[in-house]
Amino acid sequence: MSFDSLLNQKCDFDKNTPSEDPDSGQEIESWAAVASDIPCRLDPRSGGLVDNPQYEYEKATHILFTRSVAGVNHKEIKYYRVDIEGIKYRLLLIKDLAETTVRHHWEIFLELLG
After folding, report:
1. How confident is the model at residue 108, as a pLDDT?
2. SS3 assignment, position 100
3. What pLDDT, on a 0 to 100 scale, did the predictor assign at position 49?
4. Which of 38, 53, 104, 110 has a CA 20 to 30 Å removed from the CA of 72?
5. How many Å apart are CA 43 and CA 21, to the nearest integer?
6. What is the DSSP string of 10-49?
7. Which of 49, 50, 64 minimizes the C-alpha distance to 97?
8. Other CB atoms within 10 A of residue 3 CB
9. Which bin fits 36, alpha (ψ -120 to 50), beta or left (φ > 0)?
10. Are 10 and 37 in contact (CB under 8 A)?
């Protein structure tokens, strides 16, 4: 079974491009799609801390599997969110997995947004 055959859903990646409210001058969130209809697989996670040598992340509620996504800078994840069938998730960590020297896929730890 190939990796791609396991990708049974589609997701969109949105990027926060803050804008200024013309009346108040306050910064407001403004989300724009940067990648749409990306094949993926979403699996629930039992929670717990996600460890990385440099950081400790909040509890992840889900893990998303996908190929590398053009237009998403995996080093700036705080600016992105994932939308799957209208449900939004915050990115906590992207593991960029490689097969030898070639990128194979991403494992993205997500937190369900309330």
Report:
1. 92
2. coil
3. 61
4. 53
5. 37
6. EEEEEEE--EE-TTT--EE--EEEEEEEEEEEEEE----P
7. 64
8. 13
9. beta
10. yes
Amino acid at 102: V
- Asked if residue 6 lies in contact with residue 64, where contact means CB atoms within 8 angstroms, the answer is no
User: Domains, the chain, ranges and CATH?
Assistant: 4-112 (2.40.10.270)
pTM of the model: 0.80
**Residue 4 main-chain phi, psi, to 5 deg:** -60, -30
Residue type, 38: I
The pLDDT value given to residue 78: 87
Residues 6+ apart with CB under 8 A from 43: 62, 63, 64, 65
